[in-house]
Design a protein that fits this description.
heterodimer, A: about 325 residues, Rossmann fold, 5-stranded mixed beta sheet, 14 helices, about 40% helix, globular, B: about 280 residues, two-stranded antiparallel ribbon, about 45% helix, about 10% strand
Chain lengths: ~325, ~280
Amino acid sequence: MAEKKATRESYGMALADLGEKYDFLVFDADLAAATKTNMFKKKFPDRFFDCGIAEGNMMCVAAGVASTGKPVFASSFAMFASGRAYEQVRNCIGYPHLNVKIGATHAGITVGEDGATHQCIEDMALMRAIPGMTVICPADATESYQAVEAALNVNGPVYMRFGRYAVPNITPELIPDYKFELGKAVKYFDGKDVTIFATGYMVHLALEAREILKAEGIDAAVINIHTVKPIDEAAITEAARATGAIVTAEEHTVIGGLGSAVAEVVLRTCPVPMLRVGVEDKFGRSGQVPELLEIYGLTAENIAKRAREAVALKKS
Amino acid sequence: MNLTKELRLKQLANNVRIGIIEGVYNAACGHPGGSLSMADIMTYLYFEELNVKPDEPGWSDRDRFVLSKGHTAPVLYATLAERGFFDKEELKTLRKTASRLQGHPDMKCVPGVDMSTGSLGLGFSAACGMALAAKVDGKSYRTYAVLGDGESEEGQVWEAAMFAAHYKLDNLVAILDLNGLQIDGAITEVMNPTPHDDKFRAFGWHVITIDAHDFSEIESAFSEAREVKGKPTVIIAKSIKGKGVSYMENACEWHGQAPKEDLYKVAIADLMRIAEELK
């Protein structure tokens, strides 16, 4: 079993390491201990600015700094980075296409006990809709660490989605020489019956689902879409053609996130039966993470169930 | 201020006002009232205060200017054109599909526009970011932001005010256009944001109150702001909305509509009369 680590840890570590190599500032909104930007703060106190509990102002201050040529990582929980500050991100960062990298942690329902007000399940939908915004949702610690540098090298705004909850670090075992490539899907396994596209926390569960399906004689391809925008249209189309059925899995509402993004591609290039796993138009709630994942159907079993259904749809 | 300099600034400001009317009339929409109220201060900024190079608008050490009340883009465009950032003829393309003069300023395409604005409150925060960047980089450029009095009803204005004082941004000057009117009526009746002086003082700012149409007061306010250390400065500029056009002065309805041909002629006649007086 792979070592478990929260992707927000990688975000903090990457910032602290990249600070040596690149000139940028890091902002937080009174959550440095939780978003892990405190690792950067400790190492580069002169380049870290706490903006207090005022996320809208933080995003626009970041835009102002970026307008002078210096990139800024602006961090908060996904709920406040994408929700509270949506309009500031859209108009002050997105519209002028400024070099602000939004480090959003505590995304999705794996926030756990804090409940619905802090469980952002709409952030990818919101950020994806902003023209020119890059949206990254890494699967594990290894991928998250590399994604931060990739985001810094994008000329324009990037939204990075990280989690609070520890997730198995699957990459080192599956792809020892892994190199994060922005916009490029990661295919772990080929399959002939169905393709599971997953992002973020759901990626390791998609791999578990593949094992469940294998025991039943269903051969599932598993592809990690870490860059939800711009999405890897070629990889999605190729997989749709090769397997003829699709399941998407995301720790996000099924409206507007990965499922929607994949559907937008295949409806144009290769329409095939497709089902989505995600939060079904509901708010989250308080509880321990494993319980919440069961309640909202964010499980390997549910992915496998949808995959069976998608395969059946192919035959009907 | 010596009389020659004052006369020149008044003439330039009057040209800016004509540019505002030309733009808004040709667009058949836009925001003349709050543009005219800031014409004198914008003229002073671009002809006396700001260290900018019209032939090199992206010069990295330039002073920054943010029009936080972005709907008054006509005054920014007219001032930039008067200062030579682009041709004055272009003002007539305001708000047209093929024009770079968007209804609200777009930094990506208009020379001299340092921040895209329009959504109230956002530009002020961005100006704080520019001032912070100058501090971090040890640069001497200064940042200026013009805010509306109605805009000060946005909560974000006070988040930014808190931020600028907290980080001692004494290289930042905010100018608050206190013309007293917003779309729905008098600011004190719609949602009273006054008193601005006490509020900014309480937020840790240096406060200067002036007549927005008196160049001597404008000059001394900007000079005073340069001497203030350790805190940002706000210049509360008591202005007349629609200043210079007889029927637009202190008239709420000219916040956001363009004059039709007959009233356009009256406006130009008013401004030409002022131009004659200044000869």
